[in-house]
């Protein structure tokens, strides 16, 4: 297939999965047609063909608002917004389940975090390349760009002037409050997104990062090199199992636990997860999260913060783990479910706890 056909098939298949568990009583062809009636922004010959041959919906209605289109679907089929994401009883109290479900019907925006000293350079190249961008009012260094924008070919990306990072992932940094010369530990660092965020807030922080995957840490090293960060120590370790000897006697001024989780707050990007997810899978992540917390809390200096983060909407991974952390001797200072349904970004949970 050519790139145009691959994009078409991708959009239609992802559209199908965006309906989650809804229309499960309908043939695949009908669900595909209804899904893309709801999710496509523009009409097309394929959509017209699908609607005529597999639904009672009108092609002329495909340009209506999402709410208007949903009402038309409900006139023809047994369709409920709640069936898009049928796990409402499991979510954090602050989540608007209907709004979250509606957000799954569209692909989230691509967000970048611009390094403050390079704002003008990034803005200039985006304008030169005719790439539209929108600056967040609340988070000024967070800019959104159109989907499928090839950011990795830009000179400002190669120079480390910006990072690709979701809006709410950037907002977690508002809870860090690092001080110069502090030593922080990012114990589930992955490719280093939160560490890069921390360093952008306070460049004089010393970093220790760990992950249990070699390839991921190599990716982290590349990102740190591009961002010109050298004051860090990288350790391969499975923190859920044990603290390695290299860390066991260290004490940190701050610990970031960007915990492994179901990723349910990002399912608008990977909607197929809704179809394959089973609620009992949460237990696997609960055990991992508690093991990590139990192992890292002794490494935290008194009166210093542990920042617990997930990209999950499930209360057992969020508020319940805050209570577990409190049982380990930490004191909750603040917590927040970061949702931006209308800004097309991921939903995340963050809390700041202090060692007593």
Report on this model:
By secondary structure, the chain is of the alpha/beta class. It folds into 3 domains: 3-84, no CATH class; 110-164, 2-Layer Sandwich (Alpha-Beta Plaits), CATH 3.30.70.1170; 168-355, Vaccinia Virus protein VP39 (Rossmann fold), CATH 3.40.50. 37% of the residues lie in helices and 16% in strands. Strands 7-6-5-8-9-11-10 form a 7-stranded mixed β-sheet, sandwiched between helices. Helix 1 (3-18) crosses helix 2 (28-39) and helix 2 (28-39) packs antiparallel against helix 4. The N and C termini lie far apart (60 Å). The mean pLDDT is 95.
Q: Could you provide a short overview of the structure?
A:
This protein has 356 residues and is α/β, with parallel strands linked by helices. It has helices spanning 3-18, 28-39, 45-54, 66-76, 97-103, 119-128, 155-158, 167-171, 193-201, 214-226, 245-248, 272-276, 282-296, 319-327; strands at residues 110-114, 134-135, 142-145, 162-164, 183-186, 206-211, 232-236, 254-258, 305-310, 330-338, 348-355.
Task: Present the secondary structure layout.
Layout (H helix, E strand, L loop, with lengths): L2 H16 L9 H12 L5 H10 L11 H11 L20 H7 L6 E5 L4 H10 L5 E2 L6 E4 L9 H4 L3 E3 L2 H5 L11 E4 L6 H9 L4 E6 L2 H13 L5 E5 L8 H4 L5 E5 L13 H5 L5 H15 L8 E6 L8 H9 L2 E9 L9 E8 L1
Helix pairs in contact: 1-2, 2-3, 2-4
The SSE order reads HHHHHEHEEHEHEHEHEHEHHEHEE
Count of spatially separate domains: 3
Structural class: alpha/beta
The number of distinct β-strands equals 11
- How far is the first residue's CA from the last residue's CA? 60 Å
Number of helices: 14
User: Radius of gyration, Cα only, in angstroms?
Assistant: 22 Å
**Which geometry do the CA atoms define?**
globular
- Largest sheet, spatial ordering of strands: 7-6-5-8-9-11-10
Q: Average pLDDT, to the nearest integer? A: 95
Strand proportion: 15-25%
Measured as a percent range, the helix fraction is 25-40%
């Amino acid at each position: 297939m050519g790139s145009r056909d691959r994009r078409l098939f991708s959009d239609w298949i992802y559209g199908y999965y965006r309906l989650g568990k809804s229309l499960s009583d309908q043939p695949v062809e009908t669900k595909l047609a209804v899904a893309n009636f709801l999710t496509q922004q523009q009409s097309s010959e394929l959509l017209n063909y699908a609607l005529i041959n597999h639904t009672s919906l009108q092609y002329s209605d495909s340009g209506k608002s999402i709410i208007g289109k949903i009402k038309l679907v409900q006139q023809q089929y047994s369709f409920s917004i709640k069936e898009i994401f049928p796990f409402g009883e499991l979510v954090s109290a602050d989540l608007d389940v209907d709004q979250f479900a509606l957000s799954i019907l569209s692909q989230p925006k691509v967000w970048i975090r611009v390094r403050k000293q390079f704002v003008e350079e990034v803005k200039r190249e985006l304008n030169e390349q005719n790439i539209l961008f929108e600056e967040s009012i609340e988070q000024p260094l967070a800019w959104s760009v159109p989907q499928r924008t090839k950011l990795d070919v830009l000179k400002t990306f190669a120079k480390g002037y910006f990072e690709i990072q979701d809006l709410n992932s950037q907002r977690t940094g508002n809870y860090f409050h690092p001080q110069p010369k502090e030593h922080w530990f990012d114990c589930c660092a992955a490719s280093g997104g939160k560490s890069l965020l921390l360093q952008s807030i306070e460049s004089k922080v010393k970093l220790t990062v760990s992950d249990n995957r070699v390839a991921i840490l190599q990716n982290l090293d590349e990102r740190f090199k591009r961002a010109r960060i050298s004051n860090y120590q990288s350790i391969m370790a499975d923190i859920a199992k044990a603290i390695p000897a290299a860390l066991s006697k260290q004490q940190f001024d701050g610990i970031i636990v960007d915990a492994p989780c179901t990723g349910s707050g990002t399912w608008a990007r990977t909607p197929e997860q809704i179809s394959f997810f089973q609620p009992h899978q949460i237990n696997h992540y609960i055990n991992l999260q508690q093991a990590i917390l139990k192992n890292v809390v002794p490494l935290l200096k008194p009166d210093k913060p542990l920042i617990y983060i997930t990209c999950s909407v499930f209360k057992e991974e969020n508020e319940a783990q805050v209570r577990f952390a409190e049982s380990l001797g930490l004191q909750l200072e603040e917590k927040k479910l970061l949702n931006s349904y209308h800004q097309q970004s991921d939903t995340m949970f963050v809390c700041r706890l202090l060692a007593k």
